[in-house]
Write a structure and sequence with these properties.
four-stranded parallel sheet; 273 residues; four-stranded mixed sheet; globular
Length: 273
Amino acid sequence: MSEIVELLDSSAIALDHESADWREAVRFAGSLLEKSAACSEQYTRSMIENVEQNGPYIVVAPGFAFAHARPSEAVHRTAMSWVRLNTPVEFGHAKNDPVTLVVALAANDDSAHTRAMQHLAKVLGSPKKRTALDQAATPEEILDILGGSATAQQATHRIKDDVTITHSGAAHDQQAQSTTNKILTVCGNGLGTSLFLKNTLEQVLEHWGWGSYITVEATDTISAKGKAKEADLILTSGEIARTLGDLGIPVKVIENFTSTTELDAVLRDSYDV
């Protein structure tokens, strides 16, 4: 069974809901978590404040927002809610608006929600499954689609064990540089969207055969500033990139956190492949 299905009850799935704006959409997604006793109203308010303070970085793919906040006493158990909107709403994201799907996460168990995020990133990265989710008529159909087998293809070849990974790109004057073989994926809380990005990046690395050579760490904005010297580059949203500023290493803006194609292109631009 998919880890998502273990965290998502049918009663926390709403299809073709009407919301006047993004705040109402997130508030409703939070109310479904509240009704399932996963969190209190305080956590729902925190999810809204997260966007107000950090911008619409939670809109991680076209039409998709992943609402969440930092773990706190307001979270009683790890759970998710799923809200498909009848009328799209604007979050203010330059590329991924308008949003038709809001998934909310309340988490107090790292391992449970990390596995769920890994599977969700794969599902939403599949155009076929995303279309099926958009067309599903009942919560049970949503759960059936989410509970299916993983869509990511296995790598068809591996690179040699003695591979040398070096930087490339204008930021480094096209000269090969020694690397730490570590990439940071960063979001406001280090909990939700950074994990989406980490999981998609790891899919690409595994396909290349680089999974055992490069470490990917999901982290928050504050921690990223201290960890930057340990990494080759940072991958994040435009909003978070502006918050981070110049950390002395490349900061790459990713628009679609579920797109292996976009991550593949960024890696090719960042390393000599």
